[in-house]
Design a protein that fits this description.
421 residues, alpha/beta, Rossmann fold, GMP Synthetase, Chain A, domain 3, 6-stranded mixed sheet
């Protein structure tokens, strides 16, 4: 099954906590603090794999998490870093942030992309020792990992895109000029997923052609299969617009040509401006006057026009040569530029929630949560640090402004204290 879009949830590892420990050794007096740092959490890394051609692997598994870092220990031993989680994706995958739809990375080359960086490990108490604080009984907690949803979109890497209505002969043309073997039948939507084929010209050059299925009127808005597969034309440097010149579908070929161009323009103005070559197919069965009318209309717009019959192998050499010559003058398509801006690390600027529940003032969230995680409440010095930080950050002033009174109970992240001025 061909899967070209998937939404997954990723989570990087949490950093390990720093350790509170003291050196204990015979004949060594006042060994001092020797708590080690916590290990860094593992990151989630996306790497392009040329051996993958679909996002099928993400159809059933939607959650991916890297390992957490280990906590530090005594003797200044640092915790082990969490292992990175490497996720393989097909070459040509565009990564988007699910919340904003902004492009995070275009994995059309060989470089990997870190989609979620692991949290840093916390410091052990050995780092907090000073000349005046020789026995710190607190350490720093590790930072949490990053959790987000991302969207993976596979955009095929092809030089030429075959576009046109269903049953105009795109698959037949691809099979005739390459070694590809797409499904061919006399009914609409025979092709249910894009097919690729390598086409070699007489001058020795080669190019990848892609048969893009399912384009009909309204494709850019979800009709047919075009909404699902128009994205695969984004990387094509040249479009070969295949038109049924025979009229066997009882449609007007000129109107078909304009309808498909209108859908391309609705989907993307940049795609509509992409160079085109029109291949009038089934000319061996067509009324010459109808073909001439289409040719006059297309060439009047300055677009190259070729009469072909993919089934009869008529005019194919001329078309392949013209495509090869045109590609030689076209620059490569630039990769999608990253639009996503990584949020600044939360350094405690967010304010906690303050609510009054009867005679209890509840304080939760924001920088208070991280402060509590870094305090050892069994240690007097740590409790004084906790008190000083609450006062320095203006929490007590905020409570007083809201009417806290002497003797009221303040619950900070579930721990209750009696308020005293």
């Amino acid at each position: 099954m061909f899967v070209d879009k998937a939404k997954i949830k990723i989570k990087s590892g949490k950093g390990g906590n720093g350790a509170v420990a003291f050196h204990r050794e015979k004949y060594v007096a006042a060994g001092g603090p020797d708590g080690g740092d916590g290990g860094n959490g593992g990151s989630v890394i996306l790497t392009p794999d040329p051996n993958m051609s679909t996002l099928m692997d993400f159809r059933y598994k939607r959650k991916y998490a890297a390992d957490n870092g280990e906590d530090g220990s005594g003797k200044k031993c640092s915790g082990k870093n969490g292992a990175d989680l490497v996720i393989r994706v097909p070459v040509g995958t565009v990564v988007r942030d699910a919340a904003t739809n902004a492009v995070m990375a275009d994995l059309s080359g060989t470089e990997s992309f870190t989609a979620a960086r692991g949290g840093s490990g916390g410091w052990g108490n050995a780092r907090f020792a000073t000349s005046t604080r020789q026995a710190p009984r607190f350490a720093k907690a590790g930072l949490p990992g990053v959790e987000r949803e991302i969207v993976l979109e596979l955009k095929l890497l092809a030089d030429v895109g075959l576009v046109g209505f269903p049953n105009v002969g795109k698959s037949t043309l691809l099979a005739a000029v390459s070694n590809a073997h797409p499904k061919i039948a006399d009914y609409h939507f025979t092709t249910l997923f894009p097919n690729l084929g390598v086409v070699r010209a007489r001058d020795g050059s080669s190019a990848v052609w892609a048969d893009i299925p399912g384009l009909i009127e309204g494709a850019s808005e979800g009709a047919g299969l075009g909404h699902d597969f128009l994205r695969h034309v984004d990387r094509c440097r040249l479009l070969v617009h295949v038109v049924d010149a025979s009229g066997c579908e009882e449609r007007d070929s000129v109107q078909d040509y304009e309808t498909i161009n209108a859908e391309l323009h609705t989907y993307s103005e940049a795609l509509a401006a992409r160079p085109q070559i029109v291949a009038a197919n089934k000319c061996d069965q067509a009324d010459p006057e109808l073909v001439s009318r289409l040719e006059q209309y297309v060439t009047g717009k300055g677009v190259p026009f070729f009469r072909i019959s993919a089934a009869a192998h008529m005019g194919l050499d001329e078309l392949v040569t013209a495509v090869s010559h045109k590609l030689g003058s076209l620059p490569p398509i630039a990769p999608f530029r990253a639009e996503y801006v990584e949020p600044e690390p939360d350094l405690g600027s967010d304010e906690p929630q303050i609510e009054r529940d009867g005679g209890v003032w509840r304080v939760d969230g924001g920088w208070v949560d991280r402060l509590v995680a870094n305090v050892n409440f069994s240690d007097y010095e740590s409790r004084m640090y906790f008190d000083r930080t609450l006062r320095a950050r203006g929490l007590f002033k905020e409570l007083e402004a809201r009417g806290v009174a002497e003797g009221d109970t303040i619950s900070v992240c579930g721990m209750e204290f009696e308020y005293k001025k």
